[in-house]
Amino acid sequence: MNAKLVDVFSAERFSGNGLTIFSEAEGLSTAEMQALTREMRQFESIFVWREGDAFAARIFTLEEELDFAGHPLLGLAYYLHQAFGDGDRHEWRVRLGRRTVELASAWQDGRFTATMVQGRPAFIKTLTHDEVGAFHEALGLAPDRRRRYPAEVVSTGLPYLILPVVGGLERIAFQVADLSPLLEAHGAKFVYVLDVERFEGRTWDNAGRVEDVATGSAAGPAAAYLHKHGLALGTSLSIAQGRFTGRPSRIAVELVIEGLELADVRVSGDVVEVADITFVE
Question: Can 211 be counted among the known catalytic residues?
Answer without folding.
Answer: no
